[in-house]
Every structure is written in structure tokens, then in C-alpha cells.
User: Fold this.
Amino acid sequence: MKLIVGLGNPGPKYAGTRHNVGFDVIDYLAAGPGVGAFREKLEAFVAEFKEGDEQVLLVKPLTFMNLSGKAVRAILDFYKIPVENVLVVCDDFNLPLGKLRVRMKGSHGGQNGLRNIQEQLGTDGYTRLRIGVGQPTVGDAVDHVLSKFKPGERAAVDNAIADASQAALVWVRQGAEICMNRFNGSDDKEKPKKEKKPKSDDQKAKADEKKSDVPTTNE
Assistant:
């Protein structure tokens, strides 16, 4: 069994905010064929579906962002799911708008939902999928993540939610490493250096002619 957790804050007040893109990904996946209805369980909304032979839980914690780990811990204990079978989807204002980043483990990076999950689980050994929600102005991080996307940002966000949902399914089917390779983007990889082609004899002769044409000056 695998667990996909989307982070956010419950209630209509927070719907459509930057902090709730994790919930949006879960809702996108839940709208797919063969997914059961959400039911409230263990301080979360939980839906189930099968992806191939794998049973998958979709989870939206109802404990609010800063206590997300409480619900995640309860679900892992109830279903006996190992930490390595967990994918957490969340917002990240350190990433450009719409950018995805998948990591198998690492720091919570200041994201309070991830912080609490790592405190509750006692490990960072779960996969996390971050979605860039744009950078705030200096000293305005809380207001920024609790704000709604601007009309001009909506298309990029909708594309990112669709891509993140696809990334989550790839994680279920093929694992974290393949998911990282497909969805982290070219900027995470070292760009190959271009090799200079050796000059032909004709090109060398032309270069020598140009050098001889340059006038010399005496100071």
C-alpha cells in the first residue's frame, strides 16, 4: 500500500490559496476513474484506488498545515505503511511558480507541514513533491502563502497541479528515482559542455590572413 498526502488547510476560507496546492493535487487525483469517495478518518479525508496491483490512499489532513504530521502518523500506524511508501505534496515559495521538485529525503526547508511530519515520524525518509507558488516580497511569507493566485498565474498553477498529479502516479508505478528524472527539470542536471571542433587547414589559413590584416601601432 502507498500513501499520497496533500498538505493544506481545511475549510472554504483557504480553498484556492497557495498553501493548498497539495490539497488541489489530491482532488485532481480523486476525480480520476476508479477512485472511491472521500471519507473522514483519523483526522483526515481519505480516498482509495488501485493503480495496477498497488493499493493507494489519497489523504488530506484536517489538522491544519502546522499539525499535518499528527494525521500522517495516525494513518501510517493504522494501515502499517512504511515511511518509504509515503509521498507528501506541498507548496514551496522558494521555487518559481509552477516548478516541480521531487526529493526522496532531506530538509523540510521551512515548510511547516513537512516540519511537523518529520517531527512526528522521526525521519526525513519519505518522498516529497514540492510545487512552486512564486516568491513573496521580503517579510511577507505568511500573507503570501495564504493568498489566492492572481488571474495571470492561474494557467501555470493548473498545469503544475496536473503535472504533479502525473508525477504522483509515476511515483506509485515506477518509484521515486524515475519520478525525479522525469519531473525535476533540466536545471537540476549538469549541462554538458560543448566541445570545440578542431579547425580545418582552410580555416586556419583564413584566420592567419585576418591576423596579418590587423594594423600594428607604436606607442
